[in-house]
Fold these 3 entries.
Entry 1:
Amino acid sequence: MRKRNKVSQLNRSADHRKAMIQNMVISLFRYERIESSVAKLKVARSYAERMISRAKRNLDSALGTLDEKQKAEKILHNTRYLYSHLGSQEIVNKLLEDLSNRYATRLGGYTRIVRLVNRQSDNTEMAILELVERKTADELKEERAAKRAKAAAPKAKADAKPKKEKKEKKAK
């Protein structure tokens, strides 16, 4: 009997299940939409919503009554918690900077499951898990391109300076 056992096993070992759900949530935050079976998405949805709620704790409105030291401690704790559960600095930054602000006024229900037709090979119920106020694929591509350009700009400046110095030394 499965009394008082709320963990959905998904026919996997605990380590495999944890890694799979973590990867699904990271993909959800990165692409803001994923497709899988309904059973997996139900588990991933609860995990993702907990991560968004944790990220929202870092907003100023949630920390209004605390002094500066306590605010810093709470922000650090929440950031480390997210990093330990997601493992990707890029995703944690997106969660803290973009998603938490996007859902600041929403009390819950950050994701939705849209059911699709059953998979033909084994008749498994398929669905899409997406963020409610998500960005389009084109907007996400533009953001990534802007980040790459921003990251490449300091490297280009750093590379340009030593070349000028070498030319000056050769001229002497």
Note: The helical segments are 14-31, 38-56, 68-86, 89-102, 137-171.
Entry 2:
Amino acid sequence: MQTQPSQTLVNRNISITDPVSGRCHRTSIRLERIEWTALQRICEKKEISINDFCCHVDQDEKRREHSRTSRIRSAILHHYLDEAMPLDS
């Protein structure tokens, strides 16, 4: 009998503010556990909430990723890449 691998994706709710209406709504995103940990550490360092970070990323016009989750994942990765080796130098 073959066992299923344990689920590594974690689904959590976040609050996103619509830039046009200013209304806040809840949505869910699925990230790997390590991505949630990285996101939490980034937010602690920047002294902002996960919701604020996600709103900022979601509304960033420079981001071209297709989905909200992809934009958040890319922002997390960019944060750690920028810390390790700035891409602009």
Note: The chain has a mean pLDDT of 85.
Entry 3:
Amino acid sequence: MLPFRTEIRNSPKNQTIKVYINDTTCDKECKDLLDKISGIDFIEIQESVSRNRVEENITVFVKESADVNRVQQLIENKLDQHFAFD
């Protein structure tokens, strides 16, 4: 089982990327880690309301000028490095 997954969400105001981390105790640490990625406007930890999801998710608001697919890839790369086991 993967330690996280990401989903791109498009809304009328902002493109967002939802990051679902299996261990929600890591949410704050991962949020701080992702804050340094270019193309991100801001990040919030939100309560998940959908079924079959973890209790919380990290919602990444992407800058209007940024490519959401590129930002998603940067997030996944950073989290892969963070959760890598030697």
Note: The CA atoms of residues 34 and 75 lie 7 Å apart.
